[in-house]
């Protein structure tokens, strides 16, 4: 490739997603997927989809899907934006809402995609250090900024900040858009702040069906915000890719959204197993952050996070390790089934006594 | 919304997609969808998808799908990039390859999304006027530029430029990326220039399953290019949304890709109906561009394109009209089934004699 041609190509460091190992006997606790299948209604709907209609472009409006989501929250359909996974929703939010010379702020330990989107769109950013115990330092977000992004619960720490803290940050930032990324909120006792969009026109709340709805495979996420902000998001989406939600995803998300009962059974089951996992780790001397998520963030004094990660991998158990300052001795472990968690705990015990 | 907040929002004019009317009795010839269902293999595969696996993130690599596509062309899997419809592929190409202060060039009459992507990413652009007969003026693309985008066949004109003309444009632009958007190429006698990616490291060829594969509903498109360019595209994709192809789309695209026989039957049927449509229009005094696409571009001296468009709409027949200079008296008509085309011709005749 010649030099002039090369100069026209973008030069970026991409986000590197977690490993997706394949094969029998693998215990996959590294990407925060739900260990259970989606609602049985999804299975039924899949069999009934008319493939003969797939020649047509998807429904552009997704009215029914928005209505179903709005019924699960006190939100109106015109306050909902839909996307091809919450990653796409967040990416479009960055482009739509962060057009300032001041830095967008997010925690120093957080979802690593935020810096990647900022780099992609040339958005200045800065980080606010978490406290020693990995909780949010709200004052850091009161500085003048070009926008704020906070995942609540945070990842990979798993910790949910109190609603009052989140609201204070939104309140102190009326001149900036504050995005609260609620990918894991259904596993938290704090619950969603979605209803606050009616109080604050600078608030955007993002959620996903990849975790609590067990539908990572169909890619579906959405945002709640004042309808004026939703209109801006839709303009950006229509300037990028008009039809990001395909027909099958729309239909399956509708069915999942209708099945509140199954959803609650899954979430409660994951919360119970999370307690079992936390207790088991505690018995072996691990210190685990109080989790409001479908994963835990844990470490044991004197134990190398990297060594334990490599050991578990050699036993076909995949967890997530971040080779980063402050958290390099921690592991992020997705809450799997009870059986998977028992196998994991058993292997950790073997590691400690090897 | 306060002024400081408003200033941080993006200010753009979005692409406006064609109408998606719903209801019985509508003849939809306005968005270039295939009038036939996708391959029967797609229907079978849909029934067999294990919904219980949709809790997992999609396959990141899509090795098998790339292999299937590579078998339909003399292309290697590592020379293929996959996306959520060819619109997403093109959007990511704009971001990946057009990083120059010189203008990106495309025809003045062409797919209206090109200017929208350029605006979204702040890419300077210029247009090269088509000739009087709507054919490509190749010399216009020999000027120094930041990149070139040409749909071949072009839309909404339907005309396919000879391969030799396209190759000459690529050859004269070794310092810029040349994107050839082949959304409609399967309906053209010229055929794809995909194999030229082995000769030119500045060439990107984009295709879609939305037209000739009758799968607009699943959103699937892809690009062919030198593997160095594909790596850049993947880095951009991974900086935007890691998993843009969902599990169901991957599986259904695989099945469609394997069914070469059904694909050829569909394409040949559309070509036959296109001839019937062109002849019927000609009998009524319309002048129709020689089409290499699954649509035609037609006008009749003395007849207002807008009036005919509105008349057909009132009869529940949707075609596309562009309220733009040079083409405001033309209609773009998708090649539907024979029955749909007969109804259309019949209504046009009534319009002429009203």
Describe this structure in words.
- The structure is a homodimer of 354-residue chains.
- The first copy, chain A, has two domains: 19-38 and 261-352, Aspartate Aminotransferase, domain 1, CATH 3.90.1150.10; 40-258, Type I PLP-dependent aspartate aminotransferase-like (Major domain) (Aspartate Aminotransferase, domain 2), CATH 3.40.640.
- Chain A is built from eleven helices and 13 strands.
- Chain A has helices at residues 3-7, 40-48, 63-71, 86-97, 113-121, 163-171, 227-240, 247-258, 260-283, 305-314, 338-352; strands spanning 27-28, 80-83, 104-107, 125-128, 147-151, 178-181, 203-208, 221-225, 287-288, 295-299, 317-318, 320-321, 331-334.
- The radius of gyration of chain A is 21 Å and the shape is globular.
- In chain A, the strands form three sheets. The first copy, chain A, has a seven-stranded mixed beta sheet with strand order 2-8-7-6-5-3-4, with helices on both faces. A four-stranded antiparallel beta sheet of chain A has the order 9-10-13-12, covered by helices on one side. In chain A, strands 1-11 form a two-stranded parallel ribbon.
- Helix content of chain A is 36%, strand content 14%.
- Chain A is of the alpha/beta class.
- The interface between A and B is large, with 88 and 88 residues.
